[in-house]
Amino acid sequence: MAGPLVPYAFCFQPPDQQIISFFLYKMAVKRQLLPPPHDEYVHEEDLFDFKEPWEIWEEYGGDQDLYFFCELKKTSLRIHRKIGEGTWSEKEHELVYNENGNPIGWKKKFRYENRGSDDHGGWILDEYSLLVGADGRAEKASKDRYDIPFVICRLRKNRRSCGKKRNN
User: Fold this and answer.
1) Contact, 12 vs 21, CB < 8 A?
2) In whole numbers, what is the pLDDT of the chain averaged over residues?
3) pLDDT, tens digit, for every residue of 48-90?
4) Model pTM score
5) Dihedral (CA of 109, 115, 66, 131) sign
């Protein structure tokens, strides 16, 4: 999966601030493609559709955390977060700040839930969204407001999941 510009044993693990201020901003606001080698690690995929998390993991060679640029789906006032037969359930959220201490976006953590599946609780999705117009004051930032309907998501296995039987 890694191209000639990527050193051997490279592991793509950008910090939260860079995911929002560089990757998401470049792709969602500026509508620009990422330059190599980053374009090999941030894929475009609809994560809120019919595929299960392990199918996406296998499709993209999931040997490390996977990153995806995708558009959110709204149904009236809610964000649609169904995936395959399960859903992404929000577990926690936090503001992400720039180097000046101003909020630039949200990081929300979701867990895959499907009580009828061996993979219930076995997958984690970190969703990064841009915060626009908060004029540097966190109290004005609403975790349920999306100024731009695009996000970058990090898909990973839940290492703490005990009941998981799938061997991906």
Assistant:
1) no
2) 81
3) 888 899 999 999 987 789 999 998 887 777 787 888 888 899 9
4) 0.81
5) negative
Taken as a whole, the chain contains a residue count of: 168
Cα–Cα distance measured from residue 162 to residue 5, given in angstroms and rounded to the nearest whole number: 38
Each residue of 35-62: b (16+ CB within 10 Å) or e?
Answer: eeebeebbeebebbeebbbbebbeebeb
Residue identified by tokens 């966190």 is 138
Residues whose CB falls within 8 Å of the CB of residue 86, separated by 6 or more in sequence, listed in order: 52, 53, 112, 113, 114, 117, 119, 120
CB atoms within 10 A of CB 144: 9
Position 154, amino acid: R
59, containing H or E segment: helix 53-59
- Amino acid letter, residue 156: R
Q: Provide the β-strand partners of residue 106.
A: 95, 129
Q: Which residues contact 49 (CB under 8 A, 6 or more apart)?
A: 82, 83
Cα angle at 137 between 131 and 140, to 5 degrees?
70
Rounded to 5°, angle at Cα 121 from 123 and 1: 10
Residue 77 is classified by DSSP as T
Handedness of CA 45, 47, 50, 56 (dihedral sign): positive
